[in-house]
Amino acid sequence: MEHKSSGRTDSVSRRAFIRTSAAGVAAALAGKNIVFAGPAKKKFKVALLGCGGRGTGALAECVNAASFLNLELEVVATADWFRNKALETGKKYNVPESRCFGGADGYKKLLESDAEVVLTAAPPNFRPVHFEAAVKAGKHVFMEKPVAVDPPGARRVMAAGDLAGQKGLSVVAGTQRRHQATYLKSAYAVEHGAIGKIRGGCIWWCGTVPFTHPRKSDQNDADYMVDNWVNFAEMSGDHIVEQHVHNIDIANWFIGHPPIRALGFGGRARRKTGNQYDFFSVQYDYADDLHIHSMCRQLSGTYTRASEHFVGSEGDLWGGGAIEGGKEIDIPEFPEYKGPYVQEHIDLLKSILDGKPINEAHNVARSTMTAIMGRISTYTGQLVRWSDLMENKESLWYDLTLKPTAEDFEKGDVVAPKDDVVPVPGRD
After folding, report:
1. Based on the structure, what is the number of domains in the chain?
2. CB count, 10 Å around CB of 386?
């Protein structure tokens, strides 16, 4: 197999990236249909923590993965801040109402179940606490991204990831591009020198606000923040963390390490409810004269793009797409069944079956921290170093904690920030 240039710079072309014979594709697909089938089915018991759109989507994808692997899957518990959501999901999967939990401590009751695998998809603010508790309870975990909203939370996830490793638990994160065939091919190409040494690049996630939920007259502060979580930095980390983390993760993956510093700017003009920015522009310095420009925006009526482009010493590469220039190399096929969202669950379940744990906690935590570093720089107008968040306890930002925390929600001590009031860097 070989790559060739498509001459295109604004799209992803798998055919331009690699020529694959029809016979090779047929063989790969045939193998997928038989490789994991066996005479007897193993049953996995699964619990879902966070029953919103992403959580229920992850559960459906886990069901698809189990079917592909010829496994039985039983949903044994559900939990959500709003119990009606846990009940609705539980009913769909025949979970008794007694095992559908609500409120801030619902996760504790869910973790008392006999679930072997827990899918965590509550708002990012809760994920360090939920992940740590799941690992301590001895559960394998699928954890949605991002995994924290502040530096202490990201470090907490790293520590829990270390504990998962000691316990032999598998952890897969919702950075699904790491399980996507086209991105795996790109990563292989970079690793094997197809474009030489990466010298620079750009990463983008420019789209629109996913949703806004204006406050209802009968909502208390806690309910409002959870209902409208995607618009509060305290709940989501802002969209540079919640959404753009995907592209940041690709940069960290392909380069091989996180950046050493970040400097950014951004602002807000149109967004309604919450306190997040409309846009971010961040320069990430990866050392050795390697800089990646990060751009993300959530604004209707503007140009949209979610992709990555890297310039190497011998050629260019689009993340999950075409190589332009560079040297030709043979690139193997990578498995992908019904898209990367299902494949990541296949990889999780198969790692448990095979007794070969995979652990993505540090990868996703580092990429989350990279996004947090960019947000802090943008909010403050200051240069922020990786060491400020990971090593230097005297730094202004090492212990920066967004409030209300997950623990505040459990204590009932939640005061929502004012809507439409955002950080303004600098001074007059």
Report:
1. 2
2. 21
Q: Where are the alpha helices (DSSP H) in 168-272?
A: 181-191, 221-227, 233-236, 239-242, 245-255
Question: Is residue 203 domain-shared with residue 287, that is, in the same domain?
Answer: yes
Does residue 428 form part of some domain?
no
Residue identified by tokens 């750009």 is 202
Question: Residue 364's closest CA among 249, 285, 250?
Answer: 249
Each residue's pLDDT expressed in tens, for the chain with a length of 428 residues: 334 333 333 333 333 323 333 333 333 333 333 334 444 568 999 999 999 999 999 999 999 999 999 999 999 999 999 999 999 999 999 999 999 999 999 999 999 999 999 999 999 999 999 999 999 999 999 999 999 999 999 999 999 999 999 999 999 999 999 999 999 999 999 999 999 999 999 999 999 999 999 999 999 999 999 999 999 999 999 999 999 999 999 999 999 999 999 999 999 999 999 999 999 999 999 999 999 999 999 999 999 999 999 999 999 999 999 999 999 999 999 999 999 999 999 999 999 999 999 999 999 999 999 999 999 999 999 999 999 999 999 999 999 999 999 999 999 999 999 999 999 999 87
Is 118 in a helix, a strand, or coil? strand
Which range of residues forms the domain containing residue 137?
31-177+340-359
Residues 283 and 325 in one domain: yes
Q: Which amino acid is at 271?
A: R
The angle formed by the CA atoms of residues 37, 43 and 47, to the nearest 5 degrees, is 130
Q: Is residue 418 part of a domain?
A: no
